[in-house]
Amino acid sequence: MNDKNEVLIQVQDLKKAFGKLEVLRGISTEIKKGEVVVVIGPSGSGKSTFLRSLNLLEVPTGGTVLFEGTDITDPKTDIDVHRQKIGMVFQHFHLFPHKTILENIMLAPVTLKKMSKEEAEKKAKELLQRVGLADKADAYPDQLSGGQKQRVGIARALTTTPDILLCDEATSALDPQTTEAILKLLKKINREMGVTILLITHQMQVVQMICNKVAVMEKGQVVEAGSVLDV
Ligand code: ADP
Ligand code: MG
Question: Considering the entire predicted model, what is its pTM?
């Protein structure tokens, strides 16, 4: 990618407290377009809170988050516009059990009236192809393995053609081989679609398998950040 030096998200002195509990204690970092960044740290260090602050699912109690130059912590900013550029992938997939795989992927864009049913179906089929599940369109979530469910989770997160995928422990429920396959898929999406990836994890092997930048979180702060060899 030739736009690697463009900043996608700039975080300045980000703070979040729940009552007296200070969960984020002044995080400053930036994520550039096209990067694959892993945030690693022990349970309870504030990783999920940090990730959720990037699209205001948690409202910070201090600091700013600039998304493509716009301060999304400014109450005047229309966060819904930015949320469409941010896809989310979760540890436990969050698929609707009584809907088919195709329906699960089409649901958000159709419900939010962002696409017609026909458009959403076309897009969902394209994305299923991309994540290697073209033959599972009419299956139900409980007919899929964990790795396949996460592929669906990734396809669903891509329906709005986001600039970034925020992945919260996306491989933590998976065995090592499946973890590797999912990380390869994320890397492919990064390379082929130019989607920036931010992955948070407590699993060291994720760092070794995927990222080109790593930040270590501890007790609500980034204690170390650096580049690692692109693998
Ligand atoms: P991690 O993802 O690194 O495990 P979290 O961001 O989930 O960490 O949580 C960090 C800390 O914030 C934990 O002590 C957790 O209990 C607390 N916390 C998270 N969300 C809330 C909330 N909504 N209300 C109160 N405390 C919370
Ligand atoms: Mg977490």
Answer: 0.93
